[in-house]
Amino acid sequence: MAVATSWAIQGSYFESCNCDPICPCRRIDGVAGGRSTHGICMGVLSWLIEEGRAGETDLSGLTVALALRYSDDEPGSPWTWILYLDERADEEQHAALEGIFTGRLDGDAETHFPWAWKASELVGVRRAAIELEHTPRRQLLRIRDHVIVRIRNRYHGQEAVTCVIPGHDRDGEELVAEELRVSDGPLSFEYTGTCGYASTFAYSG
Fold it and tell me: What SS3 state is found at 1?
């Protein structure tokens, strides 16, 4: 199915990974990030599209999530990742979301999605019932049998923190996760008390 190459989406974003807060991959007080806390990053990203389109296809109200793993010490630090797309999406919406979040539709993916500009391994694209709540400091993501992320609260430091995925031009808030768990094929991990991050996003192509 052909997908229009003109697209734009915006909304809210939150993530969590196994790094200690503040995640050292982020830009902190204007200083560029570096290695992850443990040298291997495992985490989950999520997007709630408040307004969006790809050509004439409306994407508003749909949700997307991504589970990941990469090693700082592997040449190029390629990502191993699974993309979860809202099961409510029809065929045109599904194709558009897959094109945007795999980076195949180019645009801002080349700036914000490390898995798109690196030689990474996409394990699978899953249609999923994504339960996603972006209430500030109480964010929740649940994908039955595969993923759960629950945010405990904000991180209480005063540092200014930004992240490349929503964009360093956008204010964000460092968080602490109560629970981070993934069980899906080659991605299997479970943590508590690790870092999280929330912001807004606006991508186009």
Answer: coil
